[in-house]
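Justification of resources, computational component.

The compute hours requested in this renewal are based largely on the per-chain cost of generating structure records like the one below. Each record pairs the submitted sequence with a full structure-token output. That output is archived, and it is also reused by downstream analysis tasks.
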Amino acid sequence: MEPELPPSEQPTLEPAVLDPAVVAELYVQHADGLRWFLQGLLKDADLAGDVLQMTFTKVLERGHTARQESLKSWIYQVAYNEAMAWRRRQAVGKRVVQKAAWTRPQEDPSPESHVVRWELVAEMRTAIGLLPDEQQRIVRMRIYEQKTFATISEELNIPLGTALGRMRSALAKLRSRFEKTSHAGPDD
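The structure output for this chain reads:
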């Protein structure tokens, strides 16, 4: 058993939290500056207010561990850490939402939608087949072979503007054809 120390040599226990009156005084001294600091970091006044509250909660709980001469810088560091922790939580939340959106099972298309899609594809192929040969060739090279207009103009030995013009004309004809068929009723 260890001998007991005289009262003058016994270690003094630090308080578990900072005195609320001291925290209130620190709040009066630093709240405005901290709010501006946090608004600059977070770009949101309401959020800055919330993080300011979290900061002073930490000051109340752990302020007794800071050295008196560096208390102001310690408070700003706590505010910065709280703001960054909030940002990290937000980033994690966004990633979780994005991942959930990407991994959400897609609805199975109805059998009718497959039929309609194949009918549209067949109509489009027919419409492309009705275009003049030079326009057909450019449309096929661009859509099916996924070639750039620069490559198409080079392979066909025509100016780039001509290739673009032929594609624009082809698309206008296709659009016109599909607008006519979409306005036509079932009895037309």
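The chain has seven helices and no strands. Residues 71-103 form the longest helix (33 residues).
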